[in-house]
Amino acid sequence: MRIRPRTRAVGRSLRRTLPACVALALLSVLAACRPDLTAPGAPTSWPAASAGRWQWQWQLSGVLDPTVDADVFLLDPVATTAAQTAELRSRDRRLVCQVHVGSVLPTDPDADRFPAAVRGAVSRRPQGRWLDVRQWDALRPVLADRFRLCRGKGFGAVALADADGYAHRSGFPLGFDDQLRFNRRLAALARSLSLSPGLVNDLGQVAALAPDFDFAVNEECVRLDQCARLLPFVEAGKPVFHVEYAGSTTDFCVTTVGYGFSSIRKERRLDAWRLPCPSY
Fold first, then answer.
1. At what angle do helices 176-192 and 136-152 cross, to 10 degrees?
2. Count of C-beta atoms within a 10 Å radius of residue 192
């Protein structure tokens, strides 16, 4: 049978097209095998199926080590540069910025924006002052800009620190409900700015706030014998990022991994060094 010129041309076209189609199909398969990554400008997602399996790093001092084998990095948004967050994102890391929402330091770049009337007694941080969280109209613009700094540098989540002034001698008559209202407003503010909100410590309000926050960060619940108070996050399929500053991982990991936490051992200075618990 004689093959017409047009038929031969179609055959040659198909031979050229097939390799490209095969390559495209392979790329599609490979892309499907990759974990879903959060696009820049979107809040970080925390799939419930991965809760308890995230390896994490908390570094607030020293030279940032982007090579640490961790899925999640909790960092200082002022000290961390946009170039550093871009490098971490290129490594498929999830980025969380730590923002002190209930206290201010005299060295904070925005310290002069907090009126004297909202500054109270000395906080847990040296030279820090607790803030009057009842004064939402005065605090909201400053804290919103702190959140925007995180967003602008490429973070997708924010961890709210010092969100428990009501439980300390803050210099103000803060009640449980005052703090609860403030923390819920902050969670909503974070979401409005495309940031996933997380709660640092504040164990006394975990049961009430777990529905409002996407994850929790805890210090030393094993030493303080308070880990069970974090279970509302675990039961909701939300991650709990936990750290101990003393003791052997051989000892405390048995407890916290059993609870479903992502746990590490750190020094209090929170530099690059860490010892992780195994994840399952």
1. 40
2. 10
Angle at 135 between CA 241 and CA 146, to 5 degrees: 45
- Using the predicted structure, report yes or no on whether residue 39 has a pLDDT greater than 60: no
Which 3-state string (H, E, C) describes 169-225? CCCCCCCHHHHHHHHHHHHHHHHHCCCEEEEECCHHHHHHHHHHCCEEEEECCCCCC
Kindly give the residue spans of alpha helices, DSSP state H, lying in 64-175: 82-90, 136-152
Q: Which two tokens stand for residue 13?
A: 């076209």
User: Rounded to whole angstroms, how far apart are CA atoms 197 and 161?
Assistant: 11
Burial of 39 (0-12, 13-18, 19+ CB in 10 A): exposed
Contact 48, 238 (CB under 8 A): yes
Residues 153-198 have pLDDT tens digits of 999 999 999 999 999 999 999 999 999 999 999 999 999 999 999 9
Report phi then psi at 135, rounded to 5. Answer: -90, 65
Residue 18: the pLDDT is 37
State both tokens at 190. Answer: 């974070």
Provide mean pLDDT across the span 78-94: 96
